[in-house]
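User: Modeling request: complex.
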Amino acid sequence: MSTLARGWLIAAIALRALRRNKMRSSLTSLGIIIGVASVVAMLAVGNGARASIEGQVAALGQNLLSVSAGSSRSGGVNAGAGSASTLTIGDAEAVEREVPGIAAVSPEVTKSIQAVANGRNWSTTVAGESEAYLGIRDWDLAAGAMFTERDVRTAAKVAVLGSKTANELFGPLDPLGQAVRVGNIPFVIIGVLESKGAGIGGGGQNQDDRIIVPYTTAMRRITGDQSLRSFNVQVGSAADMTEVEQEIKALLRQRHRLAADQDDDFNIFNQQEIADTANTITGIITLLLGSIGSISLVVGGIGIMNIMLVSVTERTREIGIRMAVGARPGIVQLQFLLEAMLLSVLGGGIGVLIGVGIARLVQALADFTPVVSPGSIVLAFGVSCAIGIFFGYYPARKAARLDPIEALRYE
Amino acid sequence: MTAESNAVPTAGGAAPIIELRALNRTYRTDEVEVRAVHDVTLTIERGEFVAIMGASGSGKSTLMNVLGCLDRPTSGDYRLAGRSVADLDRAQLALLRNRKIGFVFQSFNLLARTSALENVELPLLYSVPLVPRRERRARATRTLESVGLAARMHHVPSQLSGGQQQRVAIARALVTEPELLLADEPTGNLDSRTSIEIMGLLQAQNDAGLTVVMVTHELDIAAYCKRVVVMRDGAIIRDEANAEPRSAAAERATLDAAEQQARLA
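Assistant: Request completed. Predicted assembly structure:
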């Protein structure tokens, strides 16, 4: 109890000494303020980038494997993934039937096409999918319903519009129950999707600009082809992703009769791997940004040490007086250590506020949401306290080791 | 070389406040050994008022630093109030200074930009056990009043005259109610009239029972003390009682009366 009271007393003495040199104290703190503010702001930007990328990867769907056809070559020109006609509906069915651990499979064919409805013309993409597609992609409907397994089996001429497509064709009108002509085939609109936003996995296209129809209908009426562009596989458990991927690969190689020395004629996109890679990259970015901030924090700490050394020299006589009237060396050391810590802790507190302010400013100015995590605030604040102790220790010890006689004589 | 104490013990039975036995303080600078205090044996009883005199380099300041527990003897024994200080560490010495000793310096050594009251409170900040805030303030106020500075408590040193600053310093030395007051040339920076005031304050404290040891090189200041110890080359060469010390109070009354007359004339 008495120790605590003495601690407060010494802290009050330290605070008074700092207030005596307001300008110097604030400039010294400024180093820590800038350091902490940049650490907090940069970690917020890094975490924001990570959250944004994680969100986009998660928007692809849950535990998604996407198997696409290999690229076709004609005269040395690579037409891109999915252009070869190597994947068939049979492949998709065989995978669903023979590979364990699969929750759902949705074959996919796509084609760029002209859509006409409500007297308007719109150039978009038609995607043939199975009824499981929305579940696999973790995608909800804004209105209406998804087509059913029966619609797929009977190749019904029903369509679900992406939010952008619906808006382009119908504006504020309700598209449900209306007709849309897709490549001259009339479809009945039974649902409208929620907006997913532009993101990765859309093949560079806006995911909201598409018309989804049963893949059977698309193959029969629109592409006129039995080959698939790709099929999406939802794996039951995240832990099985790699194993399922390997089994699909083995099955398809066998079905395609590929010799051991031949390359795959298909590609498998593993959402988990993308997520892991993205996490690694954003982790590195965050670390990099944090390190840049930390450098200024260390520079700020050296500034504190410098000023404290000047202060100890300047106040040699004061130290001598305090020692003569009975201040023990430990108490003198504590006073100067507390001065350094107050500088860094006050700087840290203000720095956190400014860092959060910068994060808010970035949010307001850029189309991006920095995430200020409580952890980064605690970290920055804790580090600034530690810097006060670390860089304040040497000057404080120097003060405590002064010889009172020498100190009293100091001019 | 060693001089016997001529003083009569005042507090019967109690240990002398200061007992030095064959005390040496040697400085080693490069190859040269300087014996600043050489084989000094000295006893000062409670209630004495001792002047330590000598030219500069005579070792009186070094002796004062040892007496004040600011410095430790190289060899020999120093007992303060019956207790040997030889094996105390820096923290213990600090505590001992805080409890037993009050210091008055030639250059006052007040904290700048700090009020008289806070300067006087300073030693209480370091007392063990801690003196509560309210009591610190009360004791500092009372002590400042006792040195006649009640009206200037909230002045900072730069707003005070030299004599007033020295009175603040004396109040700071007295606030812990020490057993020993050490004054190092307390009038060295003051004019003669102010010197009389300061000596009056020290004499009053001594009359009230406080032991005062003062270093001075001025004979007329030493004349206020009851005992004069003279040092040369680190050793005591003379130690004698002053049968008729000057009285600062009486001189001041005379001075005041003379001024009164001059004004009337």
